[in-house]
Amino acid sequence: MEAFSPNLQINxxxxxxxxxxxxxxxxxxxxxxxxxxxxxxxxxxxxxLALAANDGYLKIWRTPNHEPIAILGxxxxxxxxxxxxxxxxxxxxxxxxxxSVDIRKVLQxxxxxxxxxxxxxxxxxxxxxxxxxxKFLGFTYVPKNNVGNSRYFEHVYPED
Length: 160
What we know:
Shape: globular
Structural class: alpha+beta
Number of strands: 7
Helix content: 25-40%
Strand content: 25-35%
Strand order of the largest sheet: 1-2-3-4-5-7-6
Number of helices: 5
Distance between the termini: 34 Å
Radius of gyration: 15 Å
């Protein structure tokens, strides 16, 4: 598996590959069951990528054949507050452990840059290991902030 640096450009073909070949968890998270919605979802992902490129972080993982495995990004949504997003292709099935370990490493490496900030996300995944996976990545489940069927998780970068 080849992981590219956060400043590598993520292009439309990467997004389309993921939308057409989604990881089952991303399929539910992003509503990819409806093929008619793919254009709007692609636009939403492109918007998030632009926000992350401006004031956040991005990373893409690819297979040795350069097929996109997953995209991780985060962008500012308020003072000392960031929202993270993650979307993955079916390649995640083969590379889940390596990508997960690297995501945790990326989030830890961001600590000096985001001291005192909170990185949050909402997840609608019904996977039985969802909470354990996010905990492994460094997120805490905060049920009081759930919205509807979306679970709320946050990663807090301490001041010191």
